[in-house]
Amino acid sequence: MASQTAPFVRLCLPPPPGGGGSLSFRPRSLMGALAIVATAPLLLGTADPPAWTRPQAPFPIAGPITYVGSEGIAAYLIKTSAGAILIDGTLAENAGMIEHNIIAAGVRPRDVKLILVTHAHFDHAAGVAALKRATGARVVAGARDVPALETGTPPGETSYGVIRFPPVHVDRGVRDGDKVTLATTTLTARATPGHTPGCTTWTMQIPAKPRPLDVVFPCSVSVAGNRLIGNRAYPGIVADYRRSIAMLGTLHADIVLPSHPELTDVIAKGKLRQAGDTTAFVDPTLLPKIVAKAKIAFDADLAKQAR
What we know:
Elements: E1 9-13, E2 21-25, H1 30-44, E3 59-62, E4 65-67, E5 76-80, E6 83-87, H2 95-104, E7 112-116, H3 122-125, H4 128-135, E8 138-142, H5 146-151, E9 172-174, E10 179-182, E11 185-191, E12 200-206, E13 213-217, H6 237-248, E14 255-256, H7 266-274, H8 286-306
Parallel strand pairs: 6-7, 7-8, 8-9, 13-14
Antiparallel strand pairs: 1-2, 3-4, 4-5, 5-6, 10-11, 11-12, 12-13
Helix pairs in contact: 2-4, 6-8
């Protein structure tokens, strides 16, 4: 009888806002894997939200920006005269879907020149390795997340354990204020550590009348299971969160495009945009509201963990 290889199993925890949880490993036997799968819901909770892997047709946002992610996790394509820039790769199982969406958006995979990573968590970075292979793009990420991305091991300590993902070589590590340019398009890296040490918010401007529009791709500032008290792997986490929330409050954003689209109703706005509303994504009041809520939520989480 031919030997059977045990499948790769990911046990999933209930995802907190702004991030999820799962643990991947290969059991020693097929029967062992089946037993784990059968008992996993009882031991660890529910699976990742179905929307995270549900296909979503690409749609234009504003200027050169197109949504190419799944229904539940965002990836953004920015077209330039010298190729395209991709922000985030989402889940590993979404890599093929994102490549298909890139093609549907009118860009050949080999014309994607840069992949910018917001942060080193599996739900946003796990697909980057496959997309780098498919496109040949250079990967750019926050310098403090480079070790995590290149080992596939997320940084810090969380309430849901270690969630590994396919490692990927980072071609350039950036710090606060560094700029990434392709043709005439420039994005600026703003360090927003806390969610991860190298969490990076990306900003850019797009042409518009009567003035250019400021676009912000915010890295998460949600606690999302991070250990705030006694985090030996990330002892400065609380101070980093506070600085990042304060810094985000200084940014001006006409358009806010988060990694989790439900945060700003990206998919719903996409339908309005497709129906002809060219200003569907424009809301200068949105980022201040997000920052205010994030501060309240962080203070509440910190107080709860300090009890």
